[in-house]
Each structure stands twice: as structure tokens, then as C-alpha cells.
TrEMBL record:
Coiled coil region boundaries: 80-107
Keywords carried by this UniProt record: Coiled coil, Membrane, Phosphoprotein, Repeat
Matching SUPFAM superfamilies: Spectrin repeat
Subcellular location field: Endomembrane system
Name recorded for this polypeptide: Uncharacterized protein
Amino acid sequence: MSQEFSQQIQKIARDLTTILTKLRAKTDNLVQAKTDQKVLGEELDGCHLKLMELDKAVQKFSEQNGQLGKPLAKKIGKLTELHQQTIRQAENQLSKLNQAASHLEEYNEILELILRWIEKTKILVHGKIAWNSASQLREQYISHQVTLAKIVFKR
């Protein structure tokens, strides 16, 4: 029975270590990273359930077999620490993914704005520029003021 518990502990430890390794892996694909994060979260939840069941079984075994259960209880304690470390890593990764998504959204907004500026600049560069002297601009200004005054006084 003790050996069976040890095998289960090793299996959960391998699963948690695999999850932890995958959480630490870097990727450039945000969508894939979010999908992977969700899958790893589900795997982590599964490990947690197995760990809880195993902990109960080991406690029961320890009550019945005294000293034989102590080493198993220590291993369960270490496994629980590994589980907590993996949870922290998953939470940290999720936070970073959310932050990356926010930055990507902001980047895309800025990129869109810059592309619009570039388009407007191209129009200006390729458009015909009419150069007027200061006196011509003054005459045009006075003409617009007179027209505006006529419209306002007609009311």
C-alpha cells in the first residue's frame, strides 16, 4: 500500500513538473498561449483533485499504520508545496498574458493611428500645393469675414 501511494505521489509530481515547465515556456503567439494556459489550468485542477484524494488516503493510512505514514505525509507536504508553486506560476503567467493582450491592443490602436497619418501624409505630399502671398491670404480672410457678416445680419 505504501508503495502504491509513493507511485501516485511520483505521478502527480511528474504531472506538476510538466505543467510548470510548460508554464515557463515562451511563445510569440498570444492566442495559442491563452489556449495553452486554459488547458494547463484544467490539468492543474485535475492534479489538485488527485492530490486532495491522495492526501485523504494517506491520512487514513497514517491513522491505521502510524510510523509507516509519516514519510508519505512528508512527501505529500512537498507535493503540496510544488502544487502551490505551480499555481503561483500559473497565476503569474495569466497576469502576464492579460498584460500582453492589453499592450497588444494598445499597440494596434497606435499602429492604426500611424497608418492613417501616413495615408494623410501621402495625400498631402502628392497633392497640389497652392502658395499664396500674405496679401492674398489677407484679402481672402477679409472676403470670408464680409460674407460671414452678411449671413449673420440677414437673420
